[in-house]
Every structure is written in C-alpha cells, then in structure tokens.
Amino acid sequence: MADSKIWPDSTAGVSRHYCRVGTLEHLTDSISYRVLTTLRRLEEEQDNFHDFLKRLRDAKDKAEFDQFMEDRAGKPVAGPTTEA
What we know:
- There is one protein chain.
- By secondary structure, the chain is an all-alpha fold.
- The protein has one helix spanning 10-74.
- The N and C termini lie far apart (132 Å).
C-alpha cells in the first residue's frame, strides 16, 4: 500500500495556510477600504444634492415672491377711500 499524504511536507501545508489567511485578510482590508471610501463619497454626493435642492427651492420661492410683487405693483392698492 502506498503511503499517500495530504501535504507533501507538514511545514509546507502550514505556510500555504498562512499565505491564504494573509491573502484573505488583505482582501478583506481592501474591500473594507473600498466600501468605506464609497460610503464617504456617497455621503458627500448626498450632501451636495441636498444643498442643490435647497438652492432650487429658495430660487423658486424668490421667483414666486418676485412675481407676486410684480402683480401687486401693477394693481391698484385697495385702501381707504375718501368720498366727499
């Protein structure tokens, strides 16, 4: 019967295991870093979008106010009338 080993040398198997674990840790760190940078970028884009929406609403409110003032300036002001 032939003696079959799973690992040709016990120390080689251990070093391969640690290589895989080190690679896995490196990949996990790399993925974590990418996720963190993506989240930061998305938060920044969200803040920029909210700022844009606020400026858009402010501009719309200002335009509506300006239109109201123009309409009001064109119409006679109803005030107390003096009848003789």
